[in-house]
Specification:
single chain, 434 Repressor (Amino-terminal Domain), 3 domains, 24 helices, 60% helix, 8% strand
């Protein structure tokens, strides 16, 4: 997420931290590099100038120049200014009484608006709100079907959450101009349905265009007047850079938009919209989309985003994701088994599935402080985890409980069931043994055991085995060269 910008900013600040003495001159050099990084990320020029002027003014103050740790203070200044630029935190969705709370979604075509409706519905449902999703984009017949499928995915994936429903009238689809009145009527009927069936929230997915025009704005204004939404959320494609900010400003001028949702932040093409849209429109960023899956959606926290940009990680978001997937009592029981060396392939498979439900593995690792830079040139092969699940799933219950039962004939049987070969099965068994040993050291060995486990992880062999479990995959030249590097270091020893 915003990896190129993160590399530029954190690199510039780290070089400043390495200076023997900090001066106004080298602060200015650092700010020039930060300025270039922001412009390359397609941050609005006005935003860049204001941001750099504020940081420069604060960073050249007497307290910073004479500080014992000026580099750390520089990081704090840049972090604070980034938070001010993107803030404040505003994920609040009003709870109307009587319900439902009506949320109108708008945006240009291609921003991911219809997909985002499904993601927001899933987020609201996880937070205890029942949701009815209305398909009001009648210019694209496929949009009604796309939204219906998305809602069905959310419904099937939810576990014990509030209800979710879909409202659409595909037969009302019509060309531009003819669909305005039909869209308004569909929305009005959706409001009545949501009210009679006691839904907490009604999400209205409106039509988009390739560009803003009078026809689009007329339809949006008509829907707004008819349903009187409590929130109007604008979906913005973060990859569009300055075009995204320009369209956001145009929508804001003609509609009372009170929140922005940034999509496609998992891409690193530009990302400058994240730093520009709040300053340009005055509208807070409420949510961000971080991937293709329905669960790749989260409330926006400017302090956490600033931490990610500066390479400080985002442990809080990582913990929140884990809490959604991991039962606390089960986690405590697992920790006890791990400390006793009773960690089984059953446990391993269950934990792997839980982690994968949390999101893209590379993004999760990037939330750990200092890990983002290490992942810059490493590919995480998600298909490798599919192969691991297939192998473990082909074992019998007894074999998963005690992998020592595995022999050559059993390995061949498992390989056939998983559609792979015996060497892949043996590789997994070796990797599982390594994880089991490290888990015991981490949970049961006290501080000394954790330090030993950390040394083993970075010594070469263990890291190589972990890499084979998904970092780089089979076709990565980076991983292959790393393996040969490990071998060379072993020979020198």
């Amino acid at each position: 997420m915003l990896q190129s910008l993160s590399d530029r900013l954190s690199g510039a600040i780290s070089r400043l931290s390495g200076q023997g003495r900090i001066t106004e001159s080298n602060v200015r050099e650092t700010m020039d590099e930060i300025r270039d990084g922001l412009l390359e990320a397609d941050v609005n020029l006005e935003v860049v100038n204001a941001f750099c002027d504020e940081v420069m003014r604060e960073a050249t103050g007497e307290q910073v120049l004479k500080s014992v740790k000026p580099g750390q203070q520089m990081v704090e200044i840049v972090h604070r200014r980034l938070v001010d630029l993107m803030g404040p935190v505003d994920e609040h969705i009003v709870a109307a009484d009587p319900g439902p709370t009506v949320i109108m979604m708008c945006g240009l075509q291609g921003t991911g608006k219809t997909t985002t409706c499904g993601k927001l519905a899933a987020w609201l449902r996880r937070n205890g709100r029942s949701v009815l999703v209305c398909a009001a984009d009648l210019q694209r017949p496929a949009a009604v079907e796309q939204l219906r499928v998305g809602v069905e995915q959310v419904e099937s994936a939810a576990r014990g959450h509030a209800k979710i429903g879909f409202y659409g009238e595909a037969d009302k689809c019509a060309p531009w101009g003819e669909a305005v009145g039909a869209a308004v009527e569909v929305c009005q009927r959706a409001v009545r349905t949501a009210r009679s069936e006691r839904y907490d929230v009604l999400l209205v997915d409106t039509a988009g265009r390739l560009h803003i025009d009078d026809t689009l704005m007329k339809e949006l204004a008509s829907i707004q007047f008819a349903v009187q939404p409590h929130h109007i959320l604008l979906v913005v494609d973060s990859m569009a850079g300055q075009d995204a900010v320009t369209s956001a400003a145009a929508f804001h001028d003609q509609l009372p938009v009170d929140g922005v949702i940034l999509t496609k932040l998992d891409s690193d093409t530009r990302g400058g919209a994240a730093l520009s849209v709040k300053h340009v429109t005055g509208t807070p960023i409420k949510f961000i989309g971080t991937g293709e899956k329905m669960e790749d959606f989260e409330a926006f926290h400017p302090d956490r985003m600033a931490g990610r940009i500066l390479g400080m990680g985002d442990v809080v978001s990582l913990v929140e994701k884990a809490r959604e997937e991991v039962d606390e009592q089960e986690a405590e029981a697992l920790a006890e088994r791990m400390a006793k060396g009773q960690f089984t392939m059953h446990d391993f498979l269950k934990q792997l599935k839980s982690v994968r439900r949390m999101g893209n593995m590379k993004q999760l690792l990037g939330m750990l402080p200092g890990v983002g830079k290490m992942l810059k040139d490493i590919d995480v092969d998600e298909k490798q985890f599919d192969r691991i699940e297939a192998i473990a799933g082909s074992m019998t219950d007894a074999e998963r409980d005690d992998v020592s039962l595995m022999n050559k004939s059993r390995a061949r049987r498992v390989a056939r069931g998983a559609g792979t070969n015996g060497s892949e099965v043996n590789k997994l068994l070796k990797q599982f043994d390594m994880v089991k040993k490290m888990s015991k050291q981490m949970t049961g060995g006290g501080v000394g055991g954790r330090m030993k486990a950390a040394r083993n992880l970075t010594s070469g062999g263990d890291m190589q085995d972990l890499a084979a479990m998904g970092l780089g995959g089979r076709g990565s030249t980076r991983t292959q060269s790393s393996k040969s590097g490990f071998k060379r270091r072993k020979k020198r020893k």
